[in-house]
Amino acid sequence: MSKKRKSGKKIIILTAAALIAAVCGYLLLSSPAREQKRIEDKQEAMIEDILRDINGAEDMPEETEDTTDLSHIEETEDTDCGLYDEDYSDYEDETADEEPETLSVAVYEPVFTDPLPDNSFPADTMGIGILTIESINLRLPIAEGIEYAPLRIAPGRVPQTAQIGDIGNAVIAGHRNYTYGSMFNRLGEIEFGDLIQYQARNGELMEFTVFEIAVIEPENQIAFLQPLNESIITLYTCTPIREATHRLIIRAQRIS
Fold first, then answer.
1. Is the model's pLDDT at 236 over the cut of 60?
2. I need a labelling partner for 31 at 20 to 30 A (CA). Which of 88, 207, 237, 254 fits?
3. What pTM does this model have?
C-alpha cells in the first residue's frame, strides 16, 4: 500500500473518530436537558390534572338552604345535650401561656441526592395539590408519599406527618436539583415573612408565612415534630447543593 493511500485511510479514521466523539459529547451534554424537560412536562401535566378537579369543584352548584318542615317533631328534654347547662363566662384557658406542645414521630430520613436519569416515570403519580412561592418563582405539584420514583417528578408529603392544612406539621420533602429553579433548587433564597400558598385538589386555598429557616444535621429529627395546637408546613431538602451534607428546613405557619 502506498504512503498516499495509508495517509488517506488514516485521515478517514481520524475524521470518523472525531465525529463519533462529537456526537457522544453532544448526547452527554444534552441528556440532562432532555431529562429536565421531561420532568417539567410531567409536572405541568400533574398541575393541569389538579386544576381540572379544582375548576370542577368551583363549577358545582351551591347547596340550597334546607327548608324541610320539622314542626311535627316534638322537642325532647335532652335536645341540647346539656351543652348550655353550665356558665362558662369565667372560664380561663390554663394553657394560654404554656409553650406549644409537640409530638415526636418515627425517625425518618428521605433520599435527597439527584436520581439517576432513566426513561421511566410512574404513570399513576397523582398530585394532591399545588405549592406556590412567588418570591422564588416556584410552582410545583405536590404528591403523596416520598417513594423514589414520584420524588423524581414532584416533592411529596411525608406520610408520617400531618395532612397539609390540618393541625400539626405537614412535612414536604423534595430534591434539590442542580438545574436553577428546578424543584427545591432555590429554597435557600426564601426569607422570613415570605408567603407560601398551597391549593388542595378540592379547591381549598391555604396561605402560610415563613417563620423559621434552619440548617440541621441529617440525623436531626426536629423537622418532623408535630405541634398540637397550630398548623404549619415544613419544606425539607438537602444542602449545600451537590454536597448534601446537611438539611435545609423552611417552616411556615398557616394564616388563612
1. yes
2. 237
3. 0.68
